[in-house]
Amino acid sequence: MRVLVVEDSERLADTLKDVLMKAGYMVDVAGDGQSGYENAVSGIYDIIILDLMLPKMNGYEVLSAIREEGHEVPVLILSAKTELDDKVDGFALGADDYVTKPFEMRELLMRIGAILRRKKGQGIVSLKAGNLELNTTTCKLTNIETGRAMKIAGKELQLLEFFLLNRNQVLEKEQIATKIWGYESNAEYNNVEVYVSFLRKKIKNLHINAGIRAVRGIGYIFESYGEGL
User: Are 30 and 96 in a shared domain?
Assistant: First the structure.
């Protein structure tokens, strides 16, 4: 995944680049709005992290120009502008998320990951693993070998979809809780354990040859039997 960071603070840009590269992303940095815009419209980026207070072109102008040219690349605004009107303006122009400075790097990484997973999952109706198929439109969980099926909904559906979109990847409990219950929720990690237990029972009842495995001290991974990490 390639990330474009548009940030005029050299110190912050370098820090963001280091953190993102350690997380496995390829990163390019633009120090002003004009160069940021020129890089953004190249179409090579999976996500753009965009400051608002930039020289040459401000962030709003960059975002507006990107969207006017039809580019749908996800944009996460990262700004010291904290007023509600600033956020409303950013989302109105087509931002996918808005994070205010100062911020926690871990939260930023989680938000980037969430945006990229949503992008990856757009348009996907049927998700499969082993002999399991989940139809996200009908909310039906099916063993495609036997034809046995059952409906799931609510948090169970969201959780299974999240696992299948990130199949064979270890997901932290905090990451799961944030994805399913949100940042503002008071949900605790035992909620994750409870809903994982619900899903395991349904998967077992359908004789699915895939499942959710606990990774001690970290979280969970969804994998077909016999598959490793």
Answer: yes
State which of 83, 105, 121 marks the end of a domain.
121
Residue 229 belongs to some domain of the structure: no
Chain segment 116-174, per-residue pLDDT in tens = 887 766 555 788 999 999 998 788 999 999 999 999 988 899 899 889 988 898 998 88
The pLDDT, as a whole number, for residue 184 is: 44
Torsion of CA 93, 99, 105, 107, to 10 degrees: -100
pTM, two decimal places: 0.54
Q: Are residues 116 and 133 in the same domain?
A: no
pLDDT digits (tens, 9 = 90+) for 24-47: 888 889 999 999 999 898 777 889
Same domain, 53 and 25: yes
Residue 59 domain flag: yes
Q: Are strands 210-215 and 219-224 parallel, antiparallel or unpaired?
A: antiparallel
Contact between 58 and 50 under an 8 Å Cβ cutoff? The reply is: no
